[in-house]
């Protein structure tokens, strides 16, 4: 390791998880450190004919493949209201269940970019947010353009998880059967169209309106998303994803995701599932964006601790000694 211990990737990932705990009043036993409240759906992905031009990855180029999808609110708060500010951006994590028993993931959120340009900058963002002195966060935001853009961007609540666009943010390298490689970023575009609530409409919603909406919507048929890859243009940054690439970049449609049912035993299944951006298969490789490594390490840390502690510390306790 060239770096001093205090800046190693593992240390940064650990500090971020600890920092998220501080911001969100955690750790909340049995729950994710971020995106704690979610719903799980089962469905299938059907590749488009164009997908082979970009990648040889089997799950994107052969027949239908089963998927498990988790939609989530941003906050590391297990029972956060779907209609509160902390609930945005929304998350969408996809696990493709491969015929050989393996899997590969996409982890996306409803903001085209991120609050920090590097893992260490995100560590400092989270630590400033958790500081007891609010001036620390104000100072951080004033000095960091990515934080400023993320904080100031409108993040309206969606009408439904089925009416939101989700972005993979960090770039990957896609390689086709001829060995040609292109850098690109995932995005998921809702077939139902994009629709958000006004602040007044959001305030009138039930704190669990998104799961209720999904149950009702599925009675009328599958909820669908187009899976696209936005290709990098000349000079677009590959290793730093806080700011979006220009919107006019070419996009390739990889196929359509059809979600058909809410999962049974959802809370237990969510706890036992982990999605990471580096769960990959041949034909898709990580870019050199260091955030992919930090994300994956911190997601795994958050995962291993929720497996060993399956009770929600915020459930009502019975008896005056129960909290000891
Ligand atoms: C260095 C940057 C980042 C760090 C350290 C970080 C940290 C975390 C952590 C600790 C979790 C909990 C994971 C678990 O317990 O399974 C999480 C979940 C999540 N993050 Fe990030 N995050 C980062 C960037 C991003 C970006 C850029 C996106 C969007 C593309 C994103 C989207 C999500 C989503 C959707 C989840 C929920 C995944 C699930 O449903 O299992 N995060 N993040």
From TrEMBL:
Q: Which PROSITE patterns match?
A: CATALASE_3
**Residue span, Catalase core domain:** 1-322
What is the role of the protein in this entry? Has an organic peroxide-dependent peroxidase activity.
SUPFAM superfamilies for the chain: Heme-dependent catalase-like
Report what the protein is called. Catalase-related peroxidase
In this protein, the active site sits at 35
Q: Which CDD domains match?
A: srpA_like (cd08153)
Q: What is the lineage of its organism?
A: Bacteria, Pseudomonadati, Pseudomonadota, Alphaproteobacteria, Hyphomicrobiales
Member of which family? Answer: Belongs to the catalase family.
Q: Name one GO molecular function term.
A: heme binding
The record's top EC class is oxidoreductase
SMART domains from the UniProt entry: Catalase
Has the keyword Oxidoreductase been applied to this entry? yes
Needed co-factor(s): heme
| GO cellular component terms listed in the entry, alphabetical order | cytoplasm
Where are its TM segments located? none
Give its E.C. classification number. Answer: 1.11.1.-
Give residues annotated as binding heme. 299
Alphabetic keyword roster: Heme, Iron, Metal-binding, Oxidoreductase, Peroxidase, Signal
**Which InterPro entries does the annotation name?**
Catalase, Catalase_core, Catalase_sf, Catalase_SrpA-type_pred
Look up and give the organism this protein is from: Aurantimonas manganoxydans (strain ATCC BAA-1229 / DSM 21871 / SI85-9A1)
């Amino acid at each position: 390791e060239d770096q001093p211990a205090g800046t190693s990737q593992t240390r940064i990932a650990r500090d971020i998880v600890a920092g998220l705990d501080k911001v969100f009043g955690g750790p909340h036993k049995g729950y994710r450190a971020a995106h704690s409240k979610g719903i799980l759906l089962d469905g299938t992905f059907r590749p488009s004919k164009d997908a082979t031009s970009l990648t040889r990855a089997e799950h994107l180029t052969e027949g239908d493949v089963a998927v498990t999808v988790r939609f989530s609110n941003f906050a590391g708060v297990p029972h956060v209201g779907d209609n509160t500010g902390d609930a945005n951006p929304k998350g969408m994590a996809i696990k493709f269940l491969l015929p050989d028993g393996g899997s590969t993931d996409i982890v996306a959120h409803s903001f085209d970019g991120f609050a920090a340009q590097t893992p260490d900058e995100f560590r400092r963002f989270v630590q400033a947010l958790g500081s007891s002195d609010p001036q620390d966060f104000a100072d951080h935001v004033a000095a960091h353009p990515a934080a400023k853009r993320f904080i100031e961007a409108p993040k309206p609540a969606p009408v439904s998880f089925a009416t939101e666009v989700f972005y993979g943010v960090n770039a990957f390298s896609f390689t086709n059967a001829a060995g040609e490689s292109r850098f690109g970023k995932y995005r998921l575009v809702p077939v139902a169209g994009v629709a958000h609530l006004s602040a007044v409409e959001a305030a009138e919603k039930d704190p669990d309106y998104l799961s209720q909406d999904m149950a009702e919507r599925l009675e009328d048929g599958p909820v669908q998303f187009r899976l696209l890859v936005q290709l990098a243009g000349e000079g677009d940054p590959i290793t730093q994803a806080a700011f979006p690439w220009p919107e006019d970049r070419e996009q390739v449609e990889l196929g359509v995701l059809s979600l058909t049912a809410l999962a049974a035993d959802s809370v237990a299944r969510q706890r036992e599932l982990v999605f990471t951006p580096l769960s990959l298969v041949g034909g898709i490789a990580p870019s050199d964006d260091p955030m992919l490594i930090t994300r994956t390490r911190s997601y795994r840390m958050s995962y291993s601790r929720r497996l060993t502690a399956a009770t929600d510390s915020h459930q009502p306790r019975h008896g005056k000694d129960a909290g000891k």
